[in-house]
Amino acid sequence: MTAVTDQDQDRDPAHGPGGGQGVERAGTEPQAPAKGAGRDGRWDDGLIARRAATASEEPDEAADAEDPGDAGDGPDGPDGDIATEVEAYERSGGPLTPRLDSLRELLGLSRARLDRETLAEAGRVLDEAAARQRLSSRHTVVAIAGATGSGKSTLFNSLAGAQISDTGLRRPTTASPIACSWTDGAAGLLDRLAIPGRLRRRPQQGGSEADAALQGLVLIDLPDHDSAAPGHREQVDRVLALVDAVIWVVDPEKYADAALHERYLRPLAGHAEVTFVVLNQIDRLPGEAAELVLDDLRRLLDEDGMALGEHGEPGATVMSLSALTGEGMPELREVLGRFVQERTAAARRLSADVDAAAARLRPVYVADGRPGLGERAREDFTDRLAEAVGAAASGQAAEREWRRNAGRACGTPWLRLWRWYESTRQLGGLDRMALALAPAPAPPEEEITARQRVEQAVRAVADAASAGLPGPWAQAVREAAVNGARGLPEALDELARNASAGAGAGAARRAAGAGTRTRAEVRAGVRRRAAGPPRRRVRPGGRRRYWCRRR
Amino acid sequence: MDVRPQLIDALSALRDRVAAVRLPLPLPGAERAWQTRVELLDQLDDYLLPRLKDPEAPLLAVVGGSTGAGKSTLVNSLVGCRVSQAGVLRPTTRTPVLVCHPDDHHWFAGVRVLPQLTRIWLPPGQARDPDGLDDLGAAGGDEESALRVETAVSLPRGLALLDAPDIDSLVVHNRVLAAELICAADIWVMVTTASRYADAVPWYLLRTAKEYDASLVTVLDRVPHQVIAEVSRQYAALLTRAGLGDVPRFTIPELPESAGGGSGLLPTTAVAPLRAWLTHRAQDPAARQQSVGRTASGVLRSLNVRLPELAGAVAAQYAAAVRLSGVVEEAYRKEAARVRRRLQSGAVLAGDARTRWRGYPLDSSTGELLDALVESLVALLQCAVAAADDEIRTTWRGEPASGAFRFEDAGREAGGWGPAEDIEGRIAVAVRRWRRVLEELADEEVRLLEKNAAPDAETVAALLAAALLGGRRTRTAGEQLAERIGVQGALRLRDKGGALLTACLDQVMHGERDRRLAPLDALDVAPEPQAELIAALSVLQKERVKP
Ligand SMILES: Nc1nc2c(ncn2[C@@H]2O[C@H](COP(=O)(O)OP(=O)(O)OP(=O)(O)O)[C@@H](O)[C@H]2O)c(=O)[nH]1
Ligand SMILES: [Mg+2]
Description:
The complex is a heterodimer of chains A (551) and B (547). With 551 residues, chain A is an alpha/beta fold. Chain A has three domains: 42-136 and 346-363, no CATH class; 138-342, Rossmann fold (3-Layer(aba) Sandwich), CATH 3.40.50.300; 375-532, no CATH class. Helix content of chain A is 44%, strand content 7%. Chain A contains 19 helices and nine strands. Chain A has helices at residues 46-55, 96-110, 116-134, 152-160, 187-192, 209-213, 232-240, 258-265, 289-304, 329-342, 345-365, 375-389, 391-404, 413-425, 433-436, 451-466, 471-484, 488-501, 505-527; strands spanning 140-146, 178-181, 200-201, 217-221, 245-250, 275-279, 317-320, 536-538, 544-546. In chain A, the strands form two sheets. Chain A has a seven-stranded mixed sheet, sandwiched between helices. Chain A has a two-stranded antiparallel ribbon with strand order 8-9. In chain A, a hairpin with a 5-residue loop joins strand 8 and strand 9. In chain A, helix 13 (391-404) packs across helix 14 (413-425). The longest helix of chain A is centred in the last third of the chain and has 23 residues, at 505-527. The radius of gyration of chain A is 33 Å and the shape is elongated. The two termini of chain A are 56 Å apart. Chain B is of the alpha/beta class. Chain B has 16 helices and eight strands. Chain B has helices at residues 5-20, 30-53, 71-79, 105-109, 133-139, 172-183, 200-212, 228-241, 268-283, 285-344, 351-359, 366-397, 420-448, 457-469, 475-523, 528-545, and strands at residues 59-65, 97-100, 118-120, 146-151, 159-163, 187-193, 215-223, 249-253. In chain B, strand 3 (118-120), helix 5 and strand 4 form a beta-alpha-beta unit. The longest helix of chain B has 60 residues, at 285-344. The two termini of chain B are 13 Å apart. Chains A and B meet through helix 1, helix 8, helix 9, helix 12 and helix 13 of A and helix 2, helix 6, helix 7, helix 8 and helix 11 of B. The site of guanosine-5'-triphosphate (GTP) has 24 residues of chain A, from helix 4. The site of magnesium ion has 5 residues of chain A, from helix 4.
């Protein structure tokens, strides 16, 4: 069977900026449909996915929709009052706030050019970042996620030291998120997660010493993401987008499931620093099998592109334990305690979100190629216009006439046009074309300028200017060029008419006007390319860089 | 079950129609339709046709399910020895293993079923190292799928078990292969576990089984002793709710052997009921008839829905292809008309060409005039083609079906658009050829005249070109021509030259248009396959109702 298993999230949202063959066919099967249809981010799986699509007609698919639960956000204007509660929002990679500002500025500059869908994800990141920054930075919200039966609730209870969440045989057991907060003041955070009051708990009272280390922790037990129960996955997806860190609970049976890796861990590989992966239920594995499975799990994570936090390097924490017997639990508590006390999870998470958003937007802004007009393109443009208006030929004609009749040369229209043409090639270029025009009477004529030549010149200069720009921006440049060239043939007509007709000082003034306008128009077409992509872009490193421009 | 040869013929014809389906345009839904096609072919080739042709062939029970559900352990335990490797790393089974009685081996050794899988088979008697089993599988290569065929006397005659790869692990190849194998089954044995029985992915498969009305049994495996009753009851409830309440269920407790401990085989008692059920299906004629008949007629019935779906996708392809080529034709038609209008209004005689014409013969030479005219015409045509292409690009961008086409960046070899330089080059060549023919024409005309009165042939050619291209701006060109070679000759030349010009314009515009259409035409999307699919289906339906 052909099962198309691609994840669609990385696919170029538009048709690429050009590029490619007459027909591109997918895979080795020559007549298979080219992949790329159905870009809805659904997790696709051949025969099985066909069923998935059928099943999704049942009410359980509100997936990928907007979050219903973040109504408690408060106002999220871009310049919201960030200052109030923020204490520690620094991360190793660079300060978060300027990066968010850059991203916001980028989106602001792009709204007119890019469709909403392209910008939606980045906009959501900004909104969520603003919402999170307005809330407590003393707390770290950690969600426990995983497949049904992997032992999420058991682990949650074990950390809390109390039977808070139901565990059981029924699959799936947990149907809605439950929170446990070690410290007061998390109400705003839990409002944002839309967790109702009755599902907000405290850990066991009079907790041990170890519990002191967990001060500031807000733990969320999630439903599963892989059962057929309607709505569970939607809740998981909603909450995962809002928490500061995630503990993925896997078990020996399900640790290699495609649903976990393809749908979650791969897309979240950039969030490694705020990710824990724990292999639960090791008590069910005989002998040294636990080590083997743990190694295999590390290998899979590595293939997912997730950095592993080994040897002091930043990355995901991977450990094995048994929530039931308690084996490995002290280690998890310790790691988690340190993590919570650092209080950097929220900023790291947001930073990873910005990275992901920037990476996704990158192809929309940057293509391989250096946009801009070289001297060559400008000269070609002027030459083409000269041909269009007939000035190139005039030069030669004038020369010949001059040879025949040197004395009267200065008076011929040809020479004047020729001089104008020459003047455009020197410093000041088109600025001076009007000055070179001189009076000479003759009847006016319609459409002296070759329209097709002007059209061609404009097209060529626009192509040159937009070469190497991503689709929408190249389109913008072409549109600008066409708009800028509107009226150009008429202006050139008048120019040429005046050149051959000539007149008194009045005509010269008129001509000067025409010249200025022509120049302005020509320039406009050329210049507007600069208005293409905004010059600033957000880089993963958090610094700003400016577009190299050749002006 | 008795099957008339006409039914098999109708099915074979249908199968060939399905195999001929091509969906080259990336329309929404095309991927799914392609999967439908592949799945249909698998079911026809691997199951329905072989089953109808050889009703007496052994029953094939495919053991499918999630990774780690214990499929391999189950098959090993049913057979009574380790034929398929089991292990703690997920997924373990990558090469499917088929086990049958030695007497049945010939049924599976050839290409009767699953012809696309390379057979790996060790002749009986050759020593086998159970831990090396997977290496054997690996020998089949990663790309090419293999099927290991094993024989065991402990299996009853007339029954074959197939240990399929998982349906939900990260290994894509496994999922693909599993779906294909399940399509080949007489009996679907779906294995799940205490922690998996509510997973979404296996449920898609169960629903599929229901949709095709396949003979289905479920095995709830690896259930911890203490909770057997509870979990089993819950699973039963889920099945009932899904309309699968009558599906036979077998429950197997979790034992140390499930995780690879001990001998790796479950005690016979644990699998005895399932084994007995399967044996009964294979050996009791009535039960066998029922199992086989149910799956086969289920697949046959499902064709009534799935084929029209496929035909719909084929029709959508054709409609999209017609739309895409319509855009090209319309754009070029419009531009060709514009070129004609502009020629009449004398647009070619503008700019440099106009200057040359005005300076002729005093300030510009005949050659210069001709050059300027030709270049101006080239520019006009290049503009027309570029404008048409722009229009096509813009309209096509809104068509998902055009996703496969990549405009001018490439396609030189394929007869496609080619890069802009190519397009411009082709136009320049065509126009220059026209100029040469025009010059030859002038040459012939001049040679007819008396030697001393004859004007220079190039002058005639230049005047002719000016008259043809200048519209009303060059009325005098015609007069001058008449002065030099006479009115008759001038008119004759004009007519001939005009015809040549029209031919040149058509050649350029049609030639470029056809190049834009070429990649589409190459896909050869036609309306017939849809009708043929439906026709083949109705033949089949008639054959089915006949006694
Ligand atoms: N042997 C063993 N069993 C465990 C372990 N952790 C959890 N379990 C058992 O696994 C079953 C499921 O545990 P839960 O905590 O309810 O699983 P969950 O991930 O919350 O499941 P859902 O709520 O359905 O998503 C329970 O019967 C637990 O007792 C473990 O470490 N070892
Ligand atoms: Mg739970």
